[in-house]
Amino acid sequence: MKSVKKLAGSALVLSTILAGPALAADEQTITTVVKVTGENWFIRMNEGVDAFNADKEAIDATQIGPAQADAAQQARIIEDLVAKGVSAIAVVPMDPSALEGVLRRAQGRGIKVIAHEGDSIVNADADIEAFDNAAFGTKINEGLAECMGGEGKWTTFVGSLGSLTHNQWVDAGAANAEAKYPGMELVAAKNESFNDANKAYEKAKEILRAYPDIKGFQGSSAIDVIGIGRAIEEAGRSDQTCVFGLGLPKDTGPYLETGAVDRIYFWDPKDAGYVMNVVSEKILNGEEITDGADLGVQGYNSVKVSQGPGKGIIIQGQAWVDVGKENYGEYPF
Amino acid sequence: MPRADRQTVFLALINVIVLVTGALLAGANFIDSYNLQIMAAQVPELGLLALGVTLAMISGNGGIDLSGIALANLSGIVSFLVVRALVVPGDDPLLFSWTFAGVAIAVGLVGGLLNGIVIAFAGLTPLIATLGTQLLFTGVAVWLTNGSALSLGYIPPLDSFGNLPVLGVPLCFTLFVVVAALIAYILRYTPFGVKLMLLGSNAKAAHYGGIPARRMIVITYTICGILASIAGVVIASRNLSVKWDYGSSYVLIAILIAVLGGVKPEGGYGKVLCVLLAATALQILSSLFNFLGISNFFRDLAWGVLLLALLASARVNFSIWLPSRQ
């Protein structure tokens, strides 16, 4: 036992000596925390974070995220970053309300908090929305309604019932259909895919069984349309159904080609990742972001700024894109 | 050194090694008091669930509790819905917090009792039974909340419990250690604990020895339920919100901690101190990876390596390669 203690003691001494220089570096660090790593959406976001990191000499920008999409794991990562003492945390919250506590403590330690897709967060200095969520949901639904000819059964998918933006999109979609297209009947609304294409596939198969005459699907998570598209392709119903929703061109491409998925809507996560870091930098430098400001990224050239639920601001761009079979190839992600 | 002791030392050593490596790689921030407190405050959620799994495993007959995190979330949800109707948190936050904890633990007790009864009297395999109750608890929780998170609002006493250090130690960690000590005492020094070990190592012999197996099983799983609900209170206090799917990755991690802690999955053996050390080791490792910005996928890999190393250390006798000491 004695030798063990000695070993531990000397290692501790050594560590304090070696740790000295690490403290000396005083460049700003901005860490982007995403919902889950390894998903294409967030891989693309990482490109934006890396691009920002390459553009700015004095700032160390990185991206991290849990291996499983779990709000608990995300909260733990943020806690560890607070302990590490980063300058700013840019977070895409899995479940905003589960992060309030840890974000309040982050701000208490002088760390700036920037959120994306979480306009309900109280303890943030700024929240960035790519666009007005209700308008986006309505836009998707308009496309869907046109494809369906304004009538028939349709359903909606969300990543999870706790994902705020997903719910705003499908709620706005449902409101739009109800107000303008009396022939459209919403059935089994808000199926949860848990950001997992296989779960979306299973759910879509169940729905095809329960409602063989279903005509429309509105997806919310980037993988919803992939799962739905696969189920529809297997059922051989590509021509009778309309699948609209958030999606990434590269992933969804094969389904757009076969017509299983009809049109996808998205904003470029690379730009979102970049712009989160731009806003972080501005806030760290004490710069104010005002209505109509130009953040230097496509779609965020004239942002709308409003007061958030807490002390922070909500920044809204006009950064949506929609593509179909003919032009999805223009976006290499 | 006896086998059990060697394992304790080995686990303690791993804690030290990971901590020192962390200090070397991540800088002094890693071992400053703030980070140590943060890490300590993160342990109880998983640690309490792992203790539940430990008890279930010790009881033998393929004992396991998969419903822990589901019951933890359900306890928080039910308790908040009930207490919200009785006490206005703004008026008396302290009363609110205590009532919240009380009701949550009551829910945990009922849930655990249900597990125990299903396993002991319906004769279901624990794996299947707790998988079933996990779905049941989750289902009820989703039904009660429509799937969305319930925000508790900022309740100072509850928030302090989850995050405030007293004498340098976060309160929730203190509670975890006290609970662990209590379980350790029960296992080691009470007739119940001794009987449980016997039941776990040889159910047939225990039966002929006059040990009331069914009652033992019911009590064990009830304790598991109570532990889960305490975890639920910790979760609620640390996030100030409750949701049905919080910690959905915890089921397997809790089992991993128990096995890392040397608990025999076939029953009859388990040491609370080792489980506690396994929980802290995993926590330090996971925080370290976040400090270094290493992919969380790699963390799972590292946990797997750690598990294999520990299992090997329990089986292989390293002392033949070490210089003998008297």
TrEMBL record, chain A:
Main location: periplasm
UniProt keyword terms in alphabetical order: Signal
Location of the Periplasmic binding protein domain: 32-288
Xref: PANTHER family: ABC TRANSPORTER PERIPLASMIC-BINDING PROTEIN YPHF, D-XYLOSE-BINDING PERIPLASMIC PROTEIN
Taxonomic source organism: Roseibium aggregatum
Protein's name according to its UniProt entry: Autoinducer 2-binding protein LsrB
GO molecular function per UniProt: carbohydrate binding
Localization, UniProt: Periplasm
Position of the signal peptide: 1-24
Gene that specifies this protein: lsrB_2
A Pfam family of this chain: Peripla_BP_4
InterPro entries associated with the record: Bact_Solute-Bind_Prot2 (IPR050555), Peripla_BP_I (IPR028082), SBP_2_dom (IPR025997)
